[in-house]
Design brief:
Layout: H1 12-18, H2 26-34, H3 37-45, H4 53-59, H5 68-83, E1 86-94, H6 121-133, E2 138-142, H7 152-162, E3 168-172, H8 178-187, E4 191-193, H9 201-207, H10 216-228, E5 233-237, H11 245-262, E6 267-271, H12 292-305, E7 310-313, H13 319-325, E8 332-334, H14 362-371, E9 375-377, E10 386-387, E11 396-398
Parallel strand pairs: 1-2, 1-8, 1-9, 2-3, 3-4, 4-5, 5-6, 6-7, 7-8
Antiparallel strand pairs: 10-11
Helix pairs in contact: 3-4, 5-12, 6-7, 7-8, 8-10
Length: about 400
Amino acid sequence: MITVHKEQVPGIKTILADKGLDGDGALWQERLEQVSPGDVERALSQRPGSYSLDRLLALVSPAAEDYLEDMAQLARRLTLRRFGRTIRLYAPLYLSSFCVNGCLYCGFNKDNQSQRIRLSIDQAVAEAGIIAAEGFRDILLVSSEDRAFIDVDYLTRLAGELRDAFSSISVEIYQMTASEYEELFVAGIDGVTLYQETYDRRAYSYYHPAGPKADYDNRLATPNSIAAAGMRQIGVGALLGLADWRSETLALAEHAHYLVKRYWRSHISFSFPRVRPAHDVDGLQFEHLVGDRNLVQMITALRLCFADSGLVLSTRESAGLRDHLIGLGITKVSAGSKTSPGGYSHETDATEQFQIDDSRTPAQVAEMIKATGAEPVWKDWERPTAVSPSNPKHEILNPKQCQISNDINPKQ
């Protein structure tokens, strides 16, 4: 059993509160407006990949919008130096659309009138087989908060069925305890994506009025539990459109910096989801929608401050924008995504969580990546033996090894 030690002061909750980054960003608006062109130029002249809050402040400021081309070129060179000419590909597999939360922006909201589906283990394995047949060896298991069905036992059993076909299995699900995450890790799941959604407490309370997810502090602390369980990959992000994007970027960066310093064995990656149309949320007004130029500014700014972090872009974004962002910092993209349970086999009429924008096939996305001069990577690492962080003797707990070939695209 994992023991998660009490936060040493300052913890992330204290850090954000002390810096005024858990509110609406009003404390930072004046500072952002005061950033001068000289401040931006000094930030750009600093060592690529080095982080400080002041540096990021300059790079996400309104003044930096006039330096987007400079930021893009620096981000391109830094990404090439750290990651080479490769772009990793992954696919999400949705397991359930039943949910106990009331997130206002989500098609799975418990109060929405929608067609809900749960996949059995056999159905999920069949869906995963379709994904694997496309060439993917990196899969993301996604579920609404449906603990009554998608519990730890379900996920560990499913991982056991999938780990010979996929070199990387990650989850994007509800918050768990450290011991539950450890069970997933031992079963062969090596990554967890968990978005704070928004770091603005008032906005968080508004958009999450009901369900376990309504607890801001619990969600904020959960990446600590993920790291304590030994997860190799931890994905963080904010749902862009819920609050001011500049303040969100500063808070997100402070959270990531905290995790990098404290849990150096885990690799921290950033995602950049923007709110998308979803079933039964048509009347919801978002006051902080993020345009394409500001999304590019956010992505390149974070790349220039976090040299070794993966930057992930999903099919929420348009084909044209994704094509443009390949090489500007993005290191991983989804392709051919279906955002409803059973979506790959087309055997259900389940409601989507949200509408995707890039509907190209995985093969078409791979060809686009090649056209940019990069190499699409369907699988780029061998799963190591899982060692439980709570096992002092480092006993081997998962001896099964992936048997897939080392070819970049198993379909070729």
